[in-house]
TrEMBL record:
Residues 33-364 form the CAF1B/HIR1 beta-propeller domain. SMART domains: WD40. Residues 420-434, 457-473 have a biased composition (Polar residues). InterPro entries: Beta-prop_CAF1B_HIR1, HIR1-like, HIRA-like_C, WD40/YVTN_repeat-like_dom_sf, WD40_repeat_CS, WD40_repeat_dom_sf, WD40_rpt. It comes from the Eukaryota. One of its GO terms (biological process) is regulation of DNA-templated transcription. GO terms for molecular function: nucleosome binding. Keywords: Chromatin regulator, Nucleus, Repeat, Repressor, Transcription, Transcription regulation, WD repeat. It holds the Pfam family Hira. It is found in: Nucleus. It comes from Pyrrhoderma noxium. Transmembrane segments: none annotated. This is Protein HIR.
Amino acid sequence: MRFTKPAWVIHQDGTRSENAKRLSIFSVHVHPDGSRIASGGLDAKIRIWSTKPILNEAAEAANKPPKSLCTLTMHTGPVLTVRWAHSGRWLASGSDDAIIMIWDLDPAGSGKVWGSEEYNVEGWKPLKRLPGHESDVTDLAWAPEDRYLASTGLDSKVLIWCGYTLDCLAKLDLHQGFVKGVCWDPAGEFLATQSDDRTVRIWRTTDWGIEATITKPFEHSPGSTFFRRLSWSPDGAHITASNATNNNGFVFTAAVISRASWTSDISLVGHENTVEVASYNPHIFLRDPSMPVVASNICSVVALGADDRSVSVWQTKSARPLVVAKEVFERQIMDLSWSSDGLTLYAVSSDGTLAVFAFEKTELEGIAPPEAQRQYLSKFGFVPAPLPKGYSHADHSLNGHLNGQSTPPLTPPTVHQGGFSHTQPNHHGEQVTTLIARRAPRGRDRDNLRRRIQPSFEGNLTGPISSNPRKLSINMNTNAPDFFPPLSINSGNNDIRNSMDIDADFGVDMSVPISALDTRGHKRPRGDPQSITISFSDEGGRPPKARTLGGDRTRGFGTTDVREIRRFTAEGGSLHLQGIDSNETLPFINGAIGGNALPVPSLKTFLETRIEETGDTFEARNSEDVSEPSEVSFFASKEKNVQWLDYLPSPVLKICASSRFCAIAMDDGSINVYSLTGRRLMPTMTLGRSISYLDAANHFLMAITSFGQVFIWNTKTSSALHPPTSLLPLLSPSPPSIDKPNGESPMVLSAIVRPNGAPLIQLSTGIYLSYDSNLLSWIRVGESWWANGSSAWKGRQRSTTSAGGNGFGTGVIASIEARMAEYANVDNGKMRPNWWDTAMTLGHLEARMHAARVLESPQEYRQALLLYTKTIADEGFRGKAEELLKDLYGPIYWRPGKSDDTWCASILGLSKRDLVKEVISIFVRSKTLFKLAQDYQDLLRRSVADE
């Protein structure tokens, strides 16, 4: 076996210096042809690397093929998972921006990466953006034959996407905790997912119902791992799941779950910390290569990566690992991936490095041929559903075998009637399956596929409709295409006719004759007074398209010029308002007397906002004649026409939108809230003053008036989160302080609402504020004061290390502190009292935990708690340590399911009993706190045993 750690495989921060900092790599996956790997990291980028320079020293020295092939930069948060499709043509990626991206090869996409010095040798373009998760996307997996794509997230959901159309087919939401791992049964019958709720769930692919739930190996597993990546053996007989434990949680293992009984009687023991990821070699192995492929003669190879910084490789025919590589990394392993030939294992770590284990064939002997593996899987007897009509798999070669040239264009397939020819010259032996949609038929073939529906309603045509119950007979004349399952089929060219009787009870006497409803201007035949024929087809036989409000207008139909509109006072004089970045207040606004606490934005002729999750656009247009009505319109990203519009009596001052709703604030101080289809979700709200700030996130809308009143509503429940509260007390001049000797008059620099409904206000004094609805008070969630002495202050540097040494990226609080660095006035040379740094650090971390609770950032809460714990342990503060343990442990006789109004067993979705285990593991290393930690450890063991 050869071991390699290429230093040039790196995700780094934005600096261009030679000492650029390595950032965590969260995922790695090998392309099916073995020529390239994809990695995703904390820099929010996907990088594609050539494998030949990794495995061949001469190729590395010659840089042929190039080491770095492509950098993809569409995600706005750290990339947590990357997975190639089995066909090799598509790459799926998931990020903490809650978005899944599907990437496709772009033959003309090579060139310099925007905003950097990097150069893309080959191009990959975003094929489709898949919104659907409400939080971080933690893992992805392609089903056999790429029939499905499964995704998991920290929203506790599993989403199933069609592998052909990329439409969302199912949402599985039975997990009660973060879902951190997913894998497919190689036979295609089941899907397995693993969650922080300490379960592995097995789902049927036929109806997406639960087949089994496995809990026993995970009852005492810690909730501290970033992933719980599990893997299904290539023979379909076993699942190896990560983060399992034995001996009441004190022995870390990987659990081997049997398909026959969905139980785990086998554990892979040896790692000194939690197992983060399991990955099976894609091949089955023969115990005796001279014997046939039968159950008694096959085995599998599985690799494990753990938080003890080691990698182990196991062959299931042996009770001991084949390889144990200790201290391969400086931090925990995040992902593992085998090459398709089964001889190379790639591993990545949160320390930002890649390690490669290249085995000889003699070391992993007995690889069964792929055909034997397919025959073995057929013994399960599962037959998957047929492929969707209109799609086929076509073989292409991914040319340009990384020879220093950009990837040449793929030859377009030749079009034949009824489909594609799908061959292309293969110069390098690389076979990549590509999915191609068939072209729609034209001419007569298209007419034959057309569907005509002509129901006949029997009723009184000439007189008023009676209020008595009446039977309606509906006859449908349908020419159905072969991909619509007809209800009944007649031979030849006869119509397909379906009839059904409906009892219609008209409870209202409508005296208007039906003939008055004929809008075409044609007289109807009088025929049978009990019969009417209504055609749902146009004159060409095509079914009519659904209409949208304003659908005759295309994108960009009106003015997009942004000009400032001058207001007029009641006396007729003009008054020009300053923009939102001005600190000038106005003596008069909308006839109200008195000054404004906040500046009012100027009126513009055009406003636009884009919904980040979907790419939809919300626009507003104001006339320069303020007496004319204003207009708002909504465009879906996939459509060219207006989806809906509305007219308003007052000029539009501010607009905002989220993936749930749109909102506008008018110049007269009123607010309208719309659904994404244009329905008014709430009545028009009048706030009495013009709006200075308007923001939306998830279901929540925040408005701040020019008088400083803050309103926050939940548009889903049509309710306010709390009574209106004022910013005015926060904007009064501040008294002199250490970092502001002359005092300062604060100004609002920005105001947004978080997805949980918490406001986030940035002041010019270097303070960030939020509102705690439990305390009914404004609280500080960030302030530059802590830069004067806290050792936990990171400033502009992105913190990638928690107290436990785990890199989890940045969150809202870390972003706040990074922005506050410019306001921090630090005098490092000034003499400080004794204990200054310790007191500042503890106070800073306590403030961080309170801020994380209000802003609902569980990962940052945990990071601050562990760093707080370590500081207490280092200083030996027994009083603080005991108080912290009591708070997290709770009442001694508390048990799960027991109601207790005085103590909550979780915080931000994190179990306090799990957190106290981590706290104890830190305190037990302190000489001062060892006895205290040991007492609570014994107490915890007894309580677990009693449960």
